[in-house]
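HOLO CASE FILE
Compound: pyridoxal-5'-phosphate
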Amino acid sequence: MKVSLKGSKIWLDGRLVDWEDAKVHVLTHALHYASAVFEGIRVYTTPKGPAAFRLKDHLKRLFESSKIYMMDIPYNMEELIDAVRLTVNANGYRECYVRPIVFRGYGTMGVNPLNSPVQVAVAAWEWGSYLGSNAPMKGVRCMVSSWRRINAQSLPPQAKSTANYANGGLAKAEAVKNGFDEAIMLNTEGYVTEGSGENIFRVKNGVLSTPPASAGVLRGITRDTVLKLAQEMDITTERVNITREELYTADELFFSGTATEVVPIREVDGRQIGDGSNYPITAKIRKRYLEVVHGEVDGHEDWLLYLR
Ligand SMILES: Cc1ncc(COP(=O)(O)O)c(C=O)c1O
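Model generated. Tokens follow.
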């Protein structure tokens, strides 16, 4: 989805700047060597004004991703919360997607990242349904990618690093070129991991399963939310390895992610999932998820951080 941020304000290294001034040098280390980690957070309207959903959990993951890559973020949690608040409010958004990124800036060329300064930016934009406006109702068509998800022995899959998205980007491009909406990636052992930008869930005989973190998936915050909400709805959940054929024989499959939210999958590799249109458990979870993020139900206020 094309978004134009022109005219917006972006927070860069401690202050808000105009869109056209939020620039880096072409010799920025991260541009050459993928030395950057980032987050994606959604802000939703609630009865008490715009609220960022699970902001602290996202920022905690950002600090953990940075730690894995030995990048000391020159701001603390409260300062980054303020940066998000400032960015969203400066742009007057009531609902938006927020993108904090921590990257190695211009320092020295060469693979060694340690001599390049750590910079931080926060941008925000209004973003509709990530997999397309029809995706939430009609479901998406997927292919199992010929690219395998990065392996923990080569790159840490649980760090949300830009480096991982070279892998995801290959899978996504392959899927799009072949006429699909999204790719599903297997790991090097052949087990299902996730989509190029979202976690995956399977429903079979009323049981909801998702691959374990050890399969090499990003520990999605939406994944965690879905598991908690499903348990509250008395749906049995499990984190187990899922095989390719178990995708084909699922009653329901869906993706979860901050940008994606909860979106059904209606086809994998030419096999229709379930009856191709009715996904009752997915619909129930999606409905609950949207109520929770919009602050419409009691019990999960602690997941909402009000921004005004
Ligand atoms: C590769 C990948 N997996 C899973 C997710 C879902 O994570 P979250 O629910 O924290 O947004 C994302 C979203 O950023 C992602 O890029």
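CASE NOTES: The chain has a mean pLDDT of 97. The first helix runs from residue 29 to 33.
CLOSED: yes
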